[in-house]
Amino acid sequence: MLAALLTVAVILTAQPAPQPRNSVLETALKVWDVDTSDMNGDGTADILLLTSDEQSHPLKKELGLFLSDEKGGYPVKPSVTLPFDTSMGAAMLAECDGKPPRELVVLNAEGALVYRFEAGKFEKIGEPRFFSLLPSHAKEPSFLKHSAKDLLGDGRDVWFIPTPSGYDLRRMDGSVAMAECDVVSEMRREENTYIVHRLPAVHPFTVPGEQHKGMAFLSDQFADFAHGPDWKQHERFRIPVNLAEKWQGMAKMVDFNNDELPDLVVTQMKGTVNMMAQTQVYVAKELFKYPETPTKTFSTKGGISSPILIDVDGDKRKDVVLISIPLGVTNFINFFVRGKLSVRADVYLFNGTDFGGNPTFSTSLTMDAPEGRERVAYTFGDFNGDGRLDVAYGKESDMLAIRVGGKEEFLSSGSWAEVKVPSFGMADEYSLNGNAAQDIVMYHPGGPNAKRVDVIVF
Question: Using CA atoms in the order 270, 274, 275, 277, what is the torsion angle rounded to 10 degrees?
């Protein structure tokens, strides 16, 4: 009996990882952004692509919708296309009429066009006019993926439309309220004039005792809170600036300890050759208030990115992953001689109180170095469905590798699965088919594969 059990265990252990299925999507124009949603109500997510030929005159832009089939695959060519006017600047998916699927909202500086997908085609159902800071005539259109939320609890989303003084909170049938916050506008004049707007990130959250959700607006200097009827009640926390001559700052909110109080994470960067990032975590003790000194400070040197706030070990609490490119002789030799790049990931697990003094895990990944505008594709997600965080990254220029997480290490030393795809570009995780494992959508803006999208389903 024992021998039989051991034999079964060996067989189960030796089974290879399931080979993910890759669908290649092709478009007539270059792909600049991707989003997913179940547009036809069949229970699986469909793929929406924003495409544009940035060299064309007049500017050619359209949306390509790829509907999933009964086996969870996708067609090579779009199921439906929707041409855009040249003035189109951005798009988002928002629930406008209170019943699925979500509507497609196409935006520019002067208003929006709202489309419902029904009976296999897009039908225009609204054309609200309003002023905003959103771009018009964008050559590289983008999806606004965090600009619509159900704040009133009635099944209809409120749009976050940027204005010079804050956000116009509106729906298809008109404005709901105005929320003032810290918008920074700057102008730089050389031979051309450049006007840049820096808009705070919007973080909706639940306020105890209030019917509607509150909102936090996060710039690199302030956390502004709006709540109560019509969001007229305001609170402000000034974020301490600790780096002299910083050139970039960003803030995020997440509930680390699951006490329903949004905690604050602030990252400030400085330097060019000697780059440095300082990330400070402020764990809230009560609503709208944070300690004067940060709960934890992380410092990172080298080429850095914003910290990733994600559940690494499956305990339903957010942790911190810091990504950096070590500046050293070995990395320079790898880059210039072998065309390789070494990337370091330091993981700090939140134990319910703090993050400890040292990283819980440290891992290095070696990737092919990109050229020109391209970047090495990578994304985090649970790709084997075991509840722990995994990573997919461009191991080689034509190979995406998936390394899975474990209890004793952040990531396995070897690949759990490898997929033959162009690995320079952008990779995002999505749940396409409803199973426990997340999936990947890759696109390649600005490179030779700009008209190709890879959908990798686990």
Answer: -80
